[in-house]
Design brief:
2 domains, three-stranded antiparallel sheet, 7 helices
Length: 351
């Protein structure tokens, strides 16, 4: 009777040790594999695997707990596994918590870029203009335009093409382009601000918003006129409008923003000017540049229209310059996750 009890006990002990050993090693192997995957995924900047990685880390932790609770002889190995697992989970939380972006954010950004394209076309149709510039000087008093320099002259001509009846009020009084109720010094809007100004109209401050342009032909900045307004042509979300230059005009952060003014980036916009050409310095203070197609006969992508660029999940614009789908993999790392209106995937390849 005693012998019969010893045999199954011995068998059970060996079986327990075998299962415990397997679970113990698994609790170490899974987080090691997950950490390796995380490093590769981080380097790719595509961030495609956060849920899978977190799942592997959790599975490894469960294996470690089971080993520690049931198979005491393998406790030391399970402790190592749990430490690695928790380290992996914390690392994933920090990494993917600071950049919580997946395919849905990427898709949302592409959808917004398409909406911008439609809105820009609607603006051109409504105002009967052939282009929307990505730099303009806004003078609330016509006499403050600083003379007849190219930007001042082009800006005056373009605004008069939009609002042909403003000349008298512009000359004798002022046009309140920034909506603050008093004459303000001239400002130069860069591409990101032009995108919001032309599509949004006169800026509102509390809360941040855009009020379109009034139907008063002599004063497009007439905020008292609430009917027959033109625009906004795009539905700007108040929480993503930012006065990054402090000049009273909005930029619009892309969906990757995290309420961090130092790092969040608005959409960059490059449009042709009266000469039919792009100016690569139209988003200079953003650090963004337009992209060029072709080495022998270089020309800008969308050379007769505009470029809209999101800085992507890393919130850093790429270098601009020469780019094609065939050379996408060679782009500088900062530009690999950028998104634009002239390419359906990420600028560094991938979707």
């Amino acid at each position: 009777m005693i012998a019969k009890e010893i045999v199954p006990s011995t068998f059970q002990s060996k079986s327990s040790n075998t299962v415990g050993s397997v679970l113990g090693w698994v609790s170490i192997a899974l987080p090691v594999a997950a950490i390796t995957w995380a490093v590769v995924d981080w380097g790719s900047k595509h961030h495609t695997a956060p849920s899978v990685l977190a799942g592997l880390g959790l599975l490894a932790s469960l294996c470690g707990l089971m080993t520690a609770a049931v198979y005491k002889s393998r406790a030391s190995r399970s402790v190592i596994g749990m430490v690695l697992s928790l380290t992996a989970l914390v690392g994933f939380g920090v990494h993917y918590g600071s950049q919580p972006f997946d395919d849905s954010t990427r898709s949302k950004t592409f959808a917004e870029i398409r909406d911008f394209e439609a809105a820009l076309q609607a603006f051109q149709t409504d105002f009967k203009v052939a282009y929307i510039p990505s730099k303009i000087m806004l003078c609330e008093r016509l006499g403050d335009n600083g003379g007849n320099g190219p930007l001042a002259a082009d800006s005056k001509a373009y605004l008069l093409s939009l609002f042909p009846r403003i000349a008298e009020k512009w000359q004798t009084e002022f046009i309140d382009w920034n909506g603050d109720g008093k004459p303000s010094p001239p400002v130069v809007l860069e591409g990101d601000q032009c995108l919001v100004f032309f599509l949004g109209g006169i800026p509102l401050k509390n809360p941040p918003g855009c009020f379109g342009f009034s139907g008063d032909g002599k004063n497009p900045a007439n905020l008292a006129m609430t009917k027959e307004r033109k625009g906004p042509f795009f539905d700007f979300r108040s929480d993503r409008l930012r006065d990054r230059s402090g000049n009273g005009f909005w930029s619009y952060n892309d969906p990757y923003g995290q309420n961090d003014p130092a790092k969040d980036k608005p959409y960059a916009y490059f449009g042709v000017h009266s000469n039919g050409k792009f100016d690569a310095e139209d988003c200079a203070s953003l650090g963004a540049k337009p992209y060029i197609l072709g080495e022998n006969l270089p020309r800008f992508h969308m050379s007769r229209g505009f470029q809209i660029i999101s800085a992507g999940a890393d919130r850093t614009f790429g270098p601009g310059g020469l780019w094609s789908p065939e050379t996408a993999s060679k782009i500088a790392p900062a530009g690999a996750d950028d998104q634009t209106n002239f390419h359906n995937g990420l600028m560094g390849g991938g979707k």
